[in-house]
Amino acid sequence: MRSYGQYCAIAKSLDLVGDRWTLLIVRELLLSGPRRYTDLRNALPGVATNLLAARLRELEDAGILRSESAPPPVATTLYALTERGAALEPVLRELGRWGVPMMAAGPAADDHFRSHWLSFPVSEFLSDRDPDSPPLAIELRAGEDPVTVEVRDGAVHLEPGPAADPGLVLEASPHVILGLFAGALDLAGARARGLRTRGDAALLGRVRPEAV
Known about the structure:
Blueprint: H1 9-17, H2 22-32, E1 35-36, H3 37-43, H4 49-61, E2 65-69, E3 77-81, H5 83-86, H6 89-99, H7 119-125, E4 136-141, E5 147-152, E6 155-160, E7 168-171, H8 174-182, H9 187-192, E8 196-199
Parallel strand pairs: 4-7
Antiparallel strand pairs: 1-3, 2-3, 4-5, 5-6, 7-8
């Protein structure tokens, strides 16, 4: 691990987390909790296996993550963030917020996408505007695997997998879903760009800042 050799808190931080792929590994562990090596490799398209292994070793040596043995029947090594590693969450949230304008033009032709990466826009842009109402599930189909926005008791979060009984299903490209959640697109504009809905589209008004 290279060092900038500067007595500066920013430089010292970048000594540990400034290398390529490092913060994306932290992102995956923040979003999904403890992961197997194969889970991390699949969630990080483009990373070389030897580089991922090296980054995991470096992060463990730095006290940012720890490896632990999962009990049977899994019986494999799991990687999890330490308290020190979890403290990077606000840093990643600020980076995500800062990076949203760069996504406005849409993905490049060779950009990869994983459905659980929608966790950031869901937590950043959506809120439960009617916490006294019954729980609501909104299923999103924006990638290979569906995910579900769970709205309950004033909280909004993303869960992997389809909803058991969705009040609304949204199917579109990640770019359109992000635009809809961020308020850059209204419902009509999103539909004009390919959004398909099933269920009561008015339910979006419960979680979006603006009525649809």
